[in-house]
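ok new one. same drill as before - structure tokens go in, u give me an amino acid for every spot. 181 of them this time. try not to just spam alanines like last time pls lmao
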């Protein structure tokens, strides 16, 4: 009886060990596949971004008919009125119509010089491509940047005026200190 129960314990233990090794090999193989899949997905994402950027550069070049690497607002509006262009940009995640072309141009024209350069175009479209929330967020960011610049200018003027008031006060005190009443 003792040999038989030892034998059963041995068989049970050996079976559990074998199952544990098989489970470990299976989990290791699954993790290895998942790591390779994650790396492949990162490569595909990088390739997708490269294709996106290349497509945007092609769209920009097609729109820029009179200037090299520059796009004026009238060219942009004319180009955006074309339904094929609207479809192309919609596929890239940017909804544009002939009515919204000017406002989108103004969003993309980061330095507000009335001319879009290739870098501004790609950077701006990349930021606004996608859902309306992204577009609204980008508009908000641009508004905050403009307001920050305006606030800095106002701050500078206030400091200049404050300095003038201090100078007037000093002059006033000097004049009244010398002239006893």
């Amino acid at each position: 009886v003792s040999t038989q129960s030892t034998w059963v314990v041995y068989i049970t233990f050996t079976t559990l060990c074998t199952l544990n090794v098989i489970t470990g090999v299976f989990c290791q193989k699954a993790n290895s596949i998942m790591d390779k899949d994650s790396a492949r997905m990162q490569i595909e994402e990088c390739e997708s971004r490269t294709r996106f950027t290349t497509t945007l550069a092609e769209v920009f070049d097609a729109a820029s008919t009179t200037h090299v690497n520059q796009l004026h607002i009238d060219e942009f509006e004319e180009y955006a009125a074309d339904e094929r262009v609207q479809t192309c940009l919609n596929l890239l995640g940017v909804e544009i119509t002939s009515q919204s072309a000017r406002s989108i141009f103004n969003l993309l024209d980061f330095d507000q010089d009335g001319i879009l350069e290739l870098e501004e175009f790609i950077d701006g479209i990349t930021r606004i491509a996608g859902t309306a929330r992204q577009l609204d967020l980008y508009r908000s960011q641009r508004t905050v940047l403009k307001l920050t610049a305006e606030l800095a200018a106002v701050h500078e003027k206030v400091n200049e005026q404050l300095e003038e008031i201090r100078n007037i006060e000093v002059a006033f005190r000097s004049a009244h200190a010398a002239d006893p009443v």
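The chain has a mean pLDDT of 84. and btw The two ends are 127 Å apart (CA to CA).
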